[in-house]
Amino acid sequence: MPRLLFSALAALALSTTLAHADPDLAKGEQSFRKCMACHMIGPDAKVKVGPPLNGIVGRKWGAYPDYAYSDDIKAGAAAGKVWDEATLNDYIANPKVLAPKGKMAFFGIKPEGERADLIAYLKQFNAEGAKQ
Length: 132
Known about the structure:
globular, single chain, 6 helices, mainly alpha
């Protein structure tokens, strides 16, 4: 019994360590390619199907000017919601969980590590699109 308990604790410790590994910005940039059909990022970013993602980490919901947000996102904005890392993680995993009637027609990114890499990549860009 103690050996089984030790094995279970070791597996838990290993999975926790792997889940919190440092994000890989190069992998995040690769993952962003899945977003590029609808979103831009960087100094020359413009509205496409979706709003630019410059400064998205820490930005209030529905705050990009000149973009017609869905009612779900507008309601989140009225409630004072912010795109923090945890909220972005949930949204990127499955956009319809946070905004069931939202415009984002994206299947989501399931691997947690890939989402962490993508969020770290996005986090580099300030509101003007410059890397921080």
